[in-house]
Write a structure and sequence with these properties.
There is one protein chain. The protein has helices spanning 35-53, 58-92; strands at 21-23, 29-31. The chain is built from 2 helices and 2 strands, in the order E-E-H-H.
């Protein structure tokens, strides 16, 4: 098991020893309060919500994503929106 204890905002993964573990899509094991885990969960949730709305075509799906990122950018700034966008694209398999 590879445990990453270097992520900023993480408690050093001390909680991994207490069975509060999560495995990121990259295979890295972190505690379930790690910011990377929370970002991945949020990205999966937003992707699921967009898919559930059933965009009729690629353009409509793109517009839904654009609205999401503009909303996130207002609340968290450009860096927060870019981090979420990168995670969603990674989950989707886009580059």
């Amino acid at each position: 098991m590879t445990v990453d204890k270097t992520k900023e905002g993480c408690s050093g993964c001390e909680q991994v020893a207490t069975e509060r573990i999560a495995t990121l899509r990259t295979g890295i094991v972190v505690c379930n309060t790690c910011p990377d885990w929370m970002l991945e969960c949020e990205a999966r949730e937003w992707l699921q919500r967009i898919r559930a709305k059933g965009p009729r075509n690629q353009k409509e799906g793109f517009l839904m994503m654009k609205e999401l990122f503009e909303s996130i950018k207002k609340r968290r700034g450009l860096a927060g929106a870019q981090a979420l966008q990168a995670e969603i694209l990674a989950i989707r398999g886009d580059k």
